[in-house]
Each structure stands twice: as structure tokens, then as C-alpha cells.
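<instruction>
Derive C-alpha cells from the sequence
<data>
Labelled lines for chain and fold:
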Amino acid sequence: MFRALSSPTRIKILEILTHKEMHLTGLAKEIGISVPVTSRHIKILEKSNLVNKKVFGNTHILTAKTKNLEHLLETFNEKHSVEINKERSLFDALKQLPGIEIKKFGKNQYIKSIDGEDGYYIYEVNGKLPDMPINKFIINRNLSLDLKKIVTIKKKNIKINLKKTNGK
């Protein structure tokens, strides 16, 4: 997969296919390279399971498989283990880990930053998203906790122009 991502052309292909499905010829035209060269890049991306090809007769429609890229990146996350007494909160468990900064809003506590990286963080317990702040989640059994940063990804760029009225 890293080989597939080592080419600026393949990165551009994934960027385009993340936003829309495309035919090989249209993709080649948009990037500005020949169809055979585009086809070779697509084969590398397919081998890495980053591109999906739907076949309709002689027509091949391409889409990006971004979930596989996300899954690859998850292998690089930090893993920790802490021990805590029963009936304590997730907040109490997180206090044991360096680099996790908690912010209080009213009576509730939320993760403000991890390793100095401010942002919006959510947590999952055993793969499920709880509907309460970390200080209200009481631990009654062993569990798996995932901390996730909400990363903003631009999906649309919209230019808004003011209408010209009466020569103004």
C-alpha cells in the first residue's frame, strides 16, 4: 500500500476518485496523462485495494476505497493499558495516561487535547459510542477504549457571490 501511495499521480487519482466515480478515459483526461499510463496506476491502486472497479459491459467505473486507507492508518495508533478500581469513571482511568488534557464544561469533562494536539475528541467503549461525558461513564468491567479525533475533511468548496443590483 505504501508503494501505491508513493506516487503523486496515484495520490491525485485517489483524491479525484474520493469525490466522484469516473471512467478511466475521463480520469486520464482530468489528470492530463495518457489512458495506458492511467491504467497502470489504477492496477497498482487495485492491487493495494485502494480502488474499486465496477464493470458494466466494456465500461469500467472507478471509485476510491478510503476505508482501507483509514484501516491502514489505525495500525499506527498508540496502545496503552491501565488498571482502575470498579465503579470509577473513564476520567479516572484517563488521568493515568500522560498527554491527555481534560477540559471541564459545567459539571462534565471532555478530552481537550492528546499529546498537545488540541481538537474535538470522541470516545468509543467496546466499539460503541456512549452518550455521556467521560466523567459520567462508570466502569463496571474490563473494556476497550478508543479515543478518536474528529478531523475536518473538506467535502465541498462553495464560492458565494453577491448579486449585482442597480449598478452597485
About this structure: The mean pLDDT is 88. Residues 77-150 form a domain with the Ferric Hydroxamate Uptake Protein; Chain A, domain 1 fold (CATH 2.170.130.30). The CA atoms of residues 7 and 41 lie 9 Å apart. The chain has two domains: 4-70, 77-150.
